[in-house]
């Protein structure tokens, strides 16, 4: 069965917006399963990827010598720290509603990659 990956991504984005709208401000400072990441940081990570135009993103990553994991971690946390939970909710709701893909999310494929066979 063929999937409409774009529709699935935006349906998940809408569900995430509903989740963010259903949690308290304090919940945004709750730790996630990812070490060092709070809920707000995950929101910041997705918002940076969806809203930062690629030329600006490249300039921001230059500061980290294109160490994407480090840059992503620090830029996500900075974005999250600069925005209140209400602002994070509103921004993600806007992304989901308007299907915003300005930055890195434009170049990352929506389709799952085939799994590699593990050597036995």
Describe the structure.
This protein is mostly helical and 120 residues long. It has a domain at 26-106. 57% of the residues lie in helices and 0% in strands. It is built from five helices and no strands. The chain has helices spanning 5-22, 39-51, 54-62, 68-81, 85-98. Helix 1 (5-22) runs antiparallel to helix 5. The relative contact order is 0.18.
Coarse morphology: globular
List how many beta strands DSSP finds: 0
Average pLDDT across residues?
A: 89
Radius of gyration: 16 Å
Percent of residues in beta strands? Answer: under 5%
> SSE order in H/E notation?
HHHHH
Largest sheet composition? none
The separation of the N and C termini measures: 30 Å
Structure annotation, total helices = 5
Helix content: 55-70%
Throw out a few tags for this protein:
mainly alpha, globular
Task: Give the SSE layout.
Elements: H1 5-22, H2 39-51, H3 54-62, H4 68-81, H5 85-98
How would you briefly describe this protein structure?
With 120 residues, the protein is an all-alpha fold. It has five helices and no strands.
